[in-house]
Structure formats: structure tokens, C-alpha cells
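Extended Data, panel c. Modelled sequence:
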Amino acid sequence: MKQERAGAIAGLVFVVLLALAGRRGGKPPAAGDPASEITAYLAGHQTELEAGVWLLGLGVVALTWWFGVFWMRKVNAEGSTHLAAVSLIGLVVAGPLALASAAVWATAANRVDELGPSAAGFYVLGAMLLGAEGFGLAAHLAANILAARTGMLPSWLVGAGLLSAAGFLISAVLSGADFTSSGPLGLAAFVLWCAWILGVSYQLWTGERSIPRAQPG
């Protein structure tokens, strides 16, 4: 129970850190906006974008702790590590892409005077990396949706995870062709994912729907 409550706190810390990182960065322009608007945003938010890298990095540490506890619960419920491993691989794909995106944006902001209009190209690269993150998060969430048959999570959490996974997947596909439509969809999927993490964290804190390991045979 102590481990599950520690995992619940880690999940809350992750969501708070990501909210702070997003708030500090303000409202970013769309990747398809004019280069002048993008460079102006980068020049005006250098400190915030650089701080976002470290906030996201700390968030990844908290998410790793949260998932370690969630992993144990999944394995206990399913009696197998298969879907837990798929969920982990999805996060392993998504995490580096998100950190790379934040680092590219922070670097572009730090060197915007030297890069000039070319800084917009780095901004687009960061947006592409962030969009590609959606493939990993979709796989991560799908693995947990497939585990719904165990009753490990309540139906509303399964539904939120399903919507978030679909949003991430569609947004990732669209990000290669239409930044304008993929951005709001990706944001909606992200908000749902954070709500899903908070919901799972609540389940970990209260110990609800904790199912013992399936017995062989």
C-alpha cells in the first residue's frame, strides 16, 4: 500500500510539473504560422522554454516512478507482463521524443538572434517531434485499454484512455501534413491523458480494484 501511494503522489507530481511547463511557455504559435511570428515567440520566451526542459525532465523522473508502481499492479491483475511491456515500450518511445522537442525549442530560442528566420525551421522540427510522440503514447494507452477485461480500471478511465489514445494517434498522423488541425487535437489528447494518469493515481492511492495475481492452471 505504501508503494502504491508513493506511485499516486508521483503521478500527481508529473501532471503538476507538465502543467507548470506548459503555463510558463505561454500559448505557442502553430508550426504553420509565419516565420516572423514564430521567431518573435521564441525571442520572447527563451527563459520559459529553457525552464520547460528541466520541468519536463523532472516530470519524466516522476512518471518513471509512477509507472513502476503501475507496472506491478498491471502484472498482478493480468498474470502476465505482455501488456505491461507494451505500455512501457510506448512510454520509452514517447519520452525521448518529448524531451528532444523541448530541447530543440529551447535551443532555437537561445540562438534565435543568430538563426534569424531559420529559427522557425527548428520550431517546426520540435513540433514534428512532439507530434511523433503521439504514436508512443497511443501504444502506451492502448495496452492499458486492452487490459480492461481484468477489471483493473473502472469503465470511465478505460473510456478516457481510449479517447486519448485515438486523439494522440490521429494527431501524430496529421502532424506530418497539417499542423493547424493536429495541434488542438494533440492538446485535447494530452489533457485527457493527464486526467487518465490522475484517475489511475487515485486508484493507486485508495487501493480500489486491486486484483491479486492470477494463479497458473
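Residues 46-78 form the longest helix (33 residues). This feature is highlighted in the accompanying rendering.
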